[in-house]
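Figure 2 data, in text form.
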Amino acid sequence: MSGAPQIKGWCPGALRPMLSGDGWVVRVRPYGGRLRRAQADGLATLAAAHGNGMFDLSGRGNIQMRGVREDSHRPLIEGLRRMSLVDADASVEGRRNILVTPFWQSGDDTELFAAELTQALAAPDAPALPGKFGFAIDTGRLPVLQTASADIRLERDAGGGLILVADGADTGKPVTSETAVDEAVALARWFMVTCKNHMRMGRLMTAGAALPPGFMVPRQTQSYVPKPGHTPLGAMIALAFGQMTSETLATLAKHGGLRMTPWRMLLVESARQLPQIDGIITDANDPLLRVVACTGAPGCGQGLGPTRDVARALAPHVPCGQTLHVSGCAKGCAHPGASALTITATETAYDLIRNGRASDAPEQTKLTPDTLIKAI
């Protein structure tokens, strides 16, 4: 293929899948950011029956099946409905972009906020938000989702009070457990009235938009660094490039319910030991945790070159504390933000960008997999 990558402006769903190089991509958005054990096991069965048996974890805390055949889409949706994993229609599904902290505990209101926001976004009068507009319920004592994609956030201030935050702003508005979701929807309506041509809250803030009155409480700054290991709630495990087989998912389901994260990791509830399963990462020092790579060619129809084999080869050469992003095209879907090192495939070779995005001007061009090691 040639020319600029096609920007679709929306994310795939279950009811509105996206065609890729290996078939349809069907994204499942678990309610409350959690898969019960039976749901995870059922997803594994459906992927083996209707797709190519591969799953991706997305940067929005969702899980997507790959290689779904067109004639299998309807029975797949029927299976998802039986497991309560699909919305009433595609418009509701498109609005329900809700990221939930994986570290919630029973009684801390996180589940309540997620359920109430889900209901509000399914209402007939819900705002018709842009396709990638999303919410983050980051209501633990300390924020953990500030580096993840979201436009409207619920966080806690330094004193433990709830605040509503517009992405890109340094301050938030005090809210209560009773008003938090209503205020979040009201802020979404304000965005739709104010946004003009901006599709994301951060871009609107950068353009100088003034928030409504009341956004005066300083935000906390995230210090949490995601990594596999033990947590008070269970075992955090990582997946190289966020990908796993249906067999891996079914095996994980035997260890506990799964909480989704935006870090290509899963929190296995109540697991006291890190499960030793082929295809997962439990070592926080594994070099593969320093690299991010999309599907690339030939799995993605827009990919101009292979990505994950390149990323695996380069991972041991990436300095600790840095991230390498290998992108199959200039869209940079796997990591939209800037990275210390970014490699973008072109029609004939690879470009190297430092401290930038996949679409930024390269420092070096026409690199091959062999010359990339020296270049980084």
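Caption note: The mean pLDDT is 95.
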